[in-house]
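Supplementary Methods S3. Input chains for the assembly prediction are listed below.
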Amino acid sequence: MPSLAQYAGQAVVFAVVAAATGYLAANPIWREIPADMAQIKLSLVHGAVRVEDCRRLTYEEITRLPPSERRANTCKRERIAIQVELSVDGTMIYAETLQPGGLSRDGPAQAYRKFVVPAGVHHIVARLRDSKRNEGYDYEKAEDVMLAPGRNLAVDFKTDAGGFLFR
Amino acid sequence: MSFGIMTPLRRAFDVAEIALGRVFPPAWNPLANLGALGFFFYWVITVSGIYVYIFFDTGVTNAYASVEYITNDQWYAAGVMRSLHRYASDALIVVMLAHMLREFAMGRYRGVRWFSWVTGVPVLVLVYIAGISGYWLVWDRLAQFVAIVTTEWLDALAIFAEPIARNFLSPELLESRFFTLMIFMHIAVPLIALGVLWLHLARVTRPNINPPRGLALGAFGSMLVLSLVWPAVSQGPADLARVPGAVGLDWFYLPLYPLIATWPGKVTWGAGFALLAIMVAVPWLPPLRKPRPAVIDLDNCNGCGRCLADCPYDAISMVVRSDGKPFERQAVVDASYCVSCGICAGACPTSMPFRRLSDLSPGIDVPDLSMAAIRTDVERVGAELAGPARIMVFGCGEGVDLGPVKSDSVGIVRLNCIAQLPPAFIDYVLSRKLAEGVVLTGCTDVTCYHRYGVKWTKERLAGERDPYLRARVPRQRLRTLWAGPLGGGELARLVEDFSGELAALAEQPAPPPRSQRRTEAADA
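Predicted structure tokens for the full assembly:
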């Protein structure tokens, strides 16, 4: 049977362990970005046009196909890469050629990037080219956005919604 | 030992064990109950988690609101349970890591122990996954940080059709089904961990999975007081339109999250996989030269089962007799489980040193340090001793360093484990006048390298376990020291004091022979 002093010692051991557990369960504090900064998060999943345009099959081509596979059009699977740019106050912070995904390069291209910028009003321009054109962009959105400290601005892209979305 | 860090680590654990031994009885020493404490905290987490789950609601807004209800409105019950759930989870990490480090420091991860070590690695990973998924469920700012960093990290593997971190791009994109998935994970993963724990203990005989009641009460009480004094609280609702900002990390579960958040995914995944690979491979780095396993000599085995009862590694089983002798059973050794500790030979009733050398072949023995070899060593050491108080010290390779006490009057005999020594050897040394005194020493009574070596020896000496130390052996000529590697000074003092006591005994008139004592008693 432990003595009274031993019980006291055990209480001290348990108290120290419990205090350390309680402290380290939520301390020290970690800060991902400085308090006076904001974040722009660019993320998109988008498939560009195909390398070869779809074309209508001729009558002879259709008849050569097995009956269960006969169709009016044929399309090659491979898509082209897309060009994406993001600039803040005239400074290009992101310019990338995004390759299509998938083993056959027929999947959508993806991007997910984060940029830490000082809080304040910023002129943000996002551009994307997903066609075979050599110059210019198919989608562009420019907006002055007030980024409060700690704000997370999501720059998303949805074709259905008309292109870029600043959320 | 294969790694340079093992010695200082072992020393640190020994120092801590001795310090804790001053306030905890040996059976309560927390360092001897790390695995059992892990199980205890697992059950505390389970019970508190079930209670908290009754009030928890999955959903983007409902999750945080329900946790706030748990924490504030029902602080006296569900709130305490939430805090217990968190703190017991943290304590589980502490005892698990300490358990792993201690087994590593003591070298108890190699040879046949590889299985327990390797199956422990996935348990560690699963407990981390369970804990991290739990933080996610609260859906406060910490949960937001954990969710985003985790999904971005998983996306670095490039195995998903779309980046799963996109689910947390903005408030409009987040769906409640993510919380359903998380609660499923948070329940399923610990259950899987429990299954792996069953494997973890599959090769351990008499696993210690329940801490002594006093230690369990103390551990639970301390967590309960902590929950009342410093309750676990949320860190404000998650808001995907904002960066989580300053978050109070749980440094038991999330110590690597700052690195994961800032370092490239390929680097952290590479480092993580490399660390796991090293942890899994460490029992074979470098390959261990396995001593020859114990062997059965059926001519001397009567199938009594003492070796089976004492083997700490489940390496022995009893099967139907195969040699036609009039015994029901015979012992069989599973070589893949045997570490050649020799405890089985120490338990064998045929390990009698009084037998002639040609006959000293016990029913079970370890070839690399047989009973015959031990007796030869004992006789050689005894013959070399000189002086009026000759002492023979028996010790194991994992306990006190015996070398420093060796002198003209003090001889040492090394064993694989102290329980390899049948008590009859003590009788043999004293009755054959090979020494005036015998000292048995080994690991501490808390931390025996071979788990039960010290315990069995103490019980044999106390007459509580076969084979007993015969009553005729004068106990004043026997000393024991269970001190571990740090007990060198203690052993030196014990030997010095014992030497003085033996010298004093030598000066006393010798007792009359037993036959004369009987006559005197009859006359009286």
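The two ends of chain B are 62 Å apart (CA to CA). The first strand of chain B starts at residue 246 and ends at 248.
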